[in-house]
């Protein structure tokens, strides 16, 4: 696939400025760059599960979305877009619609990994021609930074608070991209804000124009929940990739492809140290937990490499 950064960045914005998302929000960055995958002239129908993105970009009767927009409940973005896509196919077949529409659902990890997983899984299994995009910020940020199944191990959240008897969330994060890939959908991929957005732009276009169901998991840091200065977002994304915490890979028609391998893998503490939610790990009595974390990151990386061609 040919790629021209300047041409991609010069496409018209489909998410208007003036919304109420936090300064430096990773979710907004994810949405704007995913929508750049649309070809000019093609229209889109956006489904949006309840969450930060929904409450901040759609305040009835005002909207920041340039495309048709549907606000869904937490649990049914996948189901709603499935129905819209099916109705579009019927109307197109009857000659009542001539324009090309693409169907894109957005949800945070709470509405994707957890509450909305059932309808997402159903949409993927039925192979509807749509894209589901998870802007993964690793917690229920909109309702108070509660842990989700996407929250990484040992993270400090309001429901896994760090204190005298707790070192944060005890469980490992769910590998949702791998789970969706096991639905044998035509396309599933994991990405974030690195390489001047090239990886994200290319995967977004692939996902949108792959016939059938597609899934994009975009690591989208939250300065409020992760506790870092807003200007550090790009560095944090780079560290996530360079430490193998967030590998860049795609699964195309069942074939696993590793898109990037660090030339010199960095230790996981480089990623953790930048975030206030992990500051307790650097206390002397908790340093052994970083070793546990590193072993889990290495285990998952080795498993991914074995799967990839």
Please describe what this structure looks like.
There is one protein chain. This protein is an alpha/beta fold and 309 residues long. It has a single domain, classed as Thiamin diphosphate (ThDP)-binding fold, Pyr/PP domains (Rossmann fold, 3-Layer(aba) Sandwich), CATH 3.40.50. The chain contains twelve helices and twelve strands. The chain has an eight-stranded mixed β-sheet with strand order 4-1-5-6-10-9-11-12, with helices on both faces. Helix 2 packs across helix 8 and helix 4 packs parallel to helix 6. The longest helix is centred in the C-terminal third of the chain and has 21 residues. The chain is globular. The model has no long low-confidence stretch (mean pLDDT 97).
